[in-house]
Amino acid sequence: MVFTLGLRHTFSLWQRGLALVQFLVVQASLASFRAGVVETLFSATISIVDPSQFSLSDRIAIANANYGRDFGWHVLSGLGEPLATLTDHHDVDMFWSSYVVAPLDGHTSTQTEGFWNHDCQRIRNIKYPNFVVETFGHFDPQTTRATIRAGYINVSFTWFDRVRSPWWFFRRWLK
Fold first, then answer.
1. Looking at residue 118, what DSSP letter applies?
2. In the predicted model, is pLDDT for residue 3 greater than 80?
């Protein structure tokens, strides 16, 4: 009886220790993410912002602008330079958004299907340039529109935010 209790106690401590190590690894990776530096596939470093670091007024402005979609986006090169602008947002399907592609500085390759065939494109919000999203999509050369998925700024609100701005949340709920 004493021997099995000791094993059970030892196993319980080992399990908690393993969970603690996993927790510390996750916290370390989140800390590097929150530090604002991400190493990309092309070995270019871009600075990003965690959406929870926005002020309440910025988060409300982002939510009012269809979670940043109405501000527009810049399509980025591998080095982080803007190649094209995505404007005139339209919802196409449940998770898909369509934008007009306007090339910048003669980068007309952004208006070809070959450019959009990659698995991932990085886009940067125009109003909040420190916010970068990795997305994917396709391009229609007849309409010069790109249809992308996951092109939005995901902001969240706490209960404290709801207490600070109750009328905004009530009006949002009525829409």
1. S
2. no
Rounded to whole angstroms, the maximal C-alpha distance in the chain is 79
CA distance 29 to 45: 16
**Coil, strand, or helix at residue 58?**
helix
Residues whose CB falls within 8 Å of the CB of residue 67, separated by 6 or more in sequence, listed in order: 152, 153, 154, 155
How far apart, in whole angstroms, are the C-alpha atoms of residue 22 and residue 19? 5
Average of pLDDT values for 36-46?
Answer: 42
Residue type (1 letter), 157: F
Q: What tokens were used for 120?
A: 């991932």
Residues 6+ apart with CB under 8 A from 167: none
| CA gap 68, 91 in Å, rounded | 13
pTM above 0.90, yes or no: no
Contact between residue 131 and residue 51 where contact means Cβ atoms under 8 Å apart: yes
Retrieve residue 155's tokens: 């902001």
Q: State pLDDT tens for residues 128-151.
A: 888 888 888 889 989 999 999 888
CA angle 93, 99, 103 (to 5 degrees): 155
* Cβ atoms of residues 84 and 74 within 8 Å: yes
